[in-house]
Amino acid sequence: MSTPAPKKRVAILISGRGSNMVSLIEAARAPDYPAEIVLVLSNRPDAAGLDRARAAGIPARAIDHKAFPDRARFDAALQAELDAAGIELIVLAGFMRILTDAFVEAWTGRMINIHPSLLPLFKGTHTHERALGAGVRLHGCTVHYVVPELDAGPIVAQAAVPVLPGDDADTLSARVIVQEHRLYPAALALIAGDGAVLDGGRVRFTEQARDAGAAILSL
Length: 219
Ligand code: GRF
What we know:
The protein is an alpha/beta fold and 219 residues long.
């Protein structure tokens, strides 16, 4: 019997409540999950997710961006924490701080984000309001590799939900977040298990991952 590949060491970066973080921590408890969550960092000391991570037994620290004179020095402090913990993959989960191009480029192919829309539609904020305003009948969420341009990185996985008559931003976001909590752990497993890799600006899937239909969750 071959020994299983070592689990990838993952840091989750948050700024808020951390519900996606919790779903990742829970998924990573499975013995055969290919990643382990070893660190949670927040740029906001008051992020509720920090206590939720600690309650789950994960080391969690705040690096308050307000304590740094510029983005480059904040990112250097982030990098130092990631290096000290031997991090191999960064997962952004509601992390509301723009990272410098230099930091993003240093982590090319090793940093992912979840965005609450079917990209490339509705980059940026207030995605649910804008989806309703545009009258789309399908909405959803996207996991993508992070590139310097905001919400523009190669797409790893998407989940779609219907937009129903009478929806407002709250009902729609509640429907989307349920899918975020399914999609993100599945996408991280795909990447940490080498089922998906970034290859020349596109995401390439192994045959096995493609056969498993892992790239798309259609609902
Ligand atoms: C999610 O909707 C995510 O897609 C977006 O920010 C929100 C974070 O929520 N990037 P949570 O902190 O994971 O609960």
